[in-house]
Amino acid sequence: MSKAILLDPFVPSISTVEVGDYTDITKHIGCQMFTCVRSQALKDNVLYLDDEGLINGTSRATRFVDEVYPHALAGRILVIGDDGMGGDKDCTLSVSEVQALVKHCCDILPSDAPF
User: Fold this and answer.
1) Within 13 Å and on the Cβ side, how many CA atoms surround 107?
2) What string of H, E and C letters represents the secondary structure of 61-92?
3) How open is the CA angle 108-78-111, to the nearest 5 degrees?
4) 63 pairs with which residues across the strands?
5) Is 33:23 a contact under the CB 8 Å cutoff?
């Protein structure tokens, strides 16, 4: 089991969780298929999020500082350490360090919303 940090824009909250394998990832972020976001600002950690977050009706997102990712990311997000060989390890960031990388949580506008 690896220590991870879960960002939940629906509550909103940031908490620590345990992750064993990919089934735990899908359970925590509430999806069928997930994708990974890497950034130097995350050091040796990655973000896992719903790959279909913008097409499955997800209504909330997290906006990070631009050094992490320049656009809002839909749904719940896990921050997990990357062992450099395709596996996971404990997240090396603290909850407060992750919180410092988050700008805010926001609503996702429907695609037919007027501008």
Assistant:
1) 4
2) EEEECCCCCCCCEECCEEEEEECCCCCEECCC
3) 15
4) 104
5) no
Rounded to whole angstroms, the Cα distance separating 60 from 57 reads 9
DSSP three-state, residue 55: coil
Residues 6 or more apart from 68 whose CB is under 8 A from it?
Answer: 37, 39, 41, 42, 47, 101
Q: Which tokens go with 86? A: 């395709």
Per-residue pLDDT at 54 exceeds 70:
yes
pLDDT of residue 51: 94
Tell me the C-alpha distance between 90 and 71, whole Å.
Answer: 26
Give the position of tokens 């064993």.
20
- Please state the length of the chain: 115
Q: Is 62 in contact with 77 (CB distance < 8 Å)?
A: yes
Cα 40 to Cα 26, 90, 107: the distances in Å are 24, 17, 26
- Count the helix, strand and coil residues of the chain and give each as a percent rounded to the nearest 5: 15, 40, 45
Q: What is the pTM of this model?
A: 0.91
Cα separation of 91 and 80, whole Å? 5
